Amino acid sequence: MTTVLALMPFEDLEVDSAVRVDRDGHRLAVIRIGNEVFVLGDQCSHADYSLSEGEVDPDERTIECWKHGSSFHVEDGTPDSLPATQPVPVYDATIVDGIVTVTISEEAQ
Description:
Blueprint: E1 2-9, E2 17-23, E3 26-33, E4 36-41, E5 56-57, E6 62-64, E7 71-73, E8 90-96, E9 99-105
């Protein structure tokens, strides 16, 4: 089973930035790079810190945890720097009628 959640208007996202959205018990980092949108679990895999508070690097297509500096690729959630060694969850994000939506599979719930 999958759940589709409407998160926010795409136009409300600043280019090359991230925001935290909490929906139905899911803590999500909504990331905009150019005209693309990505959704990751909003918790660093190293420690319980919000990824959406970190810096987005549009060239590397990563988001950096503000606390310890680990960066995660927005497309697959894999870290490319220590201290994080485990990926963060990645969700299918789309824009439907100007609204960012995310699909969360049963396994991710």
